[in-house]
Design a protein that fits this description.
Distance between the termini: 40 Å
CATH topology of the largest domain: Glutaredoxin
Strand content: 15-25%
Radius of gyration: 19 Å
Mean pLDDT: 97
Largest sheet: 5 strands, mixed
CATH superfamily of the largest domain: Glutaredoxin
Strand order of the largest sheet: 5-4-3-6-7
Helix content: 25-40%
Bound molecules: benzoic acid
CATH class of the largest domain: Alpha Beta
Number of domains: 2
Order of helices and strands: EEHEHEHEHEEHEEHEE
Structural class: alpha+beta
Number of strands: 11
Amino acid sequence: MAIRLGDVAPDFTAMTTQGTVSFHEWKGNGWAILFSHPKDFTPVCTTELGAVAALKPEFDRRNTKVIGLSVDPVESHHRWEGDIKEVTSHAVNFPMIADPDRKVADLYDMIHPNASDTMTVRSVFIIGPDHKIKLTLTYPASTGRSFQEVLRVLDSLQLTAGYSVATPADWKQGEDVIIVTSVSDADAKVKFPKGFVAKKPYLRVTPPPDR
Ligand code: BEZ
């Protein structure tokens, strides 16, 4: 069954390039990003894994663990890691799940049979400290993902989890945010001491409250 926002992320135990992982235990009370890619030794995936490895310090700074998945076995992942380092100059610094029996892929609905019977699509799940799904993304095999965008969404999710705000189109960390409509003007004056501008009664912007 499809995974929806707000669902508890299914737990699993799987072999990875960094040993056996029990997902909820491995994730702990922090955030996690679980992402799948179609197959080892494929060109777009090679660039994606290098991009995630380069961003790992940013994910660490956000108390967020990353874990990749493909349906190939762990020995194949290890051999491929050499190519990824060679081509992208970034060593893979996070675990990659080996899922040859598609146990995890099925749990997370990562196989889309009308796209491919055998390969996982490019799925991304962001999972919060409460183990609940905060974001799902599905890209086709032909399109590499923007992991800067994944990081941007993570920033929004972490900010909006702590404050009564939402983030506008193309928002980036440090930019003004929107006060959610359930907060009255009177309460907004207390909650957002830096003040706010009401462009419309329902569109009130305020400087980032976490800085
Ligand atoms: C790729 O990563 O380049 C790729 C993987 C599966 C199908 C098509 C492209």
